[in-house]
């Protein structure tokens, strides 16, 4: 019989004794009844205890004490500011929590352990397995994830304890958070700059490869931009031609030059170009007053012969094409021309005779 049963039996015996005593006093039982009643009250509980022991058999003292002992209370340990790795190197989380545990059934041969150390180590292992896969910029989100993952009692690796954690907090160091905020701002600025660059690049490709590909494309584009106002487009034709040639780094085609000259009533459209050697030679002849065509041909032929010996023939050919000397113009013809005409070339050109 357990201690609880014994206590209950004694309590009932005392209660019965009190009731019988009260009843005997009220009924005025005879004197001999009182000793018999006392013997009965003592014999009945003893008989009950003996019968219960015979039916249940002997009970070990240790087992009886274990059954009747108070429930074993769970234990707890508070950990604060424990560094746990994140997915980024050198950016650690700061972990704090209340670790709770209770022991599992252990055999008599198990070694003595520190349950607080085992419980804290088990919780940190479970937390680290999660944080090292997470980015440091999401500390608040990872905190809620840890609260759910650590809220369940689970056995630790040695099998001695069931462990869980409560009141979980997870933060970054202040200077690490400031660095992350700066990096986020830089990434945002870079994204905006990339979009602007791509927009400008796309706009340049559109203008260079489509709109200003040639004058015709530019005219069609300008016509669409001005709501089919043909008069304005025609008025801006020379501007579009110059813009297209500048965009493609080419000269305006001759056909467009002639068309633009006719449209504006001018002799030619005033386009600037680099003077050539033939232009400089022309300016020299005009400056010296050599207006006779034969003289100009003669001098062009002589200069062209000299140029051929000093540099590529392109300049000489240009001068010959400009002044168009006869194909059979030679030095002998020059001597015959000089003998037939007693005048000096300078006199023919209106100058003073040579001395």
Write up this protein.
- The chain is of the alpha+beta class.
- It folds into four domains: 3-68, no CATH class; 75-105 and 112-172, Tetrahydropterin Synthase, Chain A; 212-264, no CATH class; 277-348, no CATH class.
- Helices cover 61% and strands 10% of the residues.
- It contains 15 helices and four strands.
- A four-stranded antiparallel β-sheet has the order 1-2-4-3.
- It starts with a helix and ends in a 7-residue tail after the last helix.
- The model is unreliable at 61-66 and 328-355 (pLDDT under 50).
* Mean pLDDT reading: 76
Kindly provide the name of the CATH class of the largest domain: Alpha Beta
- In spatial order, strands of the major sheet run 1-2-4-3
What's the shape? rod-shaped
Q: Helix proportion of residues, in percent?
A: 55-70%
DSSP summary, beta strand count: 4
Low-confidence stretches: 61-66, 328-355
Oligomer: single chain
Compressed to H and E, one letter per element, the order equals: HHHEEHHEEHHHHHHHHHH
Radius of gyration over all CA atoms, rounded: 59 Å
| Name of the CATH architecture of the largest domain | 2-Layer Sandwich
Treating each run of at least 4 consecutive H or I residues as one helix, how many helices? 15
Q: What is the number of domains?
A: 4
- Indicate the CATH topology of the largest domain: Tetrahydropterin Synthase, Chain A
Largest sheet entry: 4 strands, antiparallel
Distance between the termini: 164 Å
Secondary-structure content class? alpha+beta
The fraction of residues in strands falls at 5-15%
Outline of this structure?
The chain has 355 residues and is of the alpha+beta class. It is built from 15 helices and four strands.
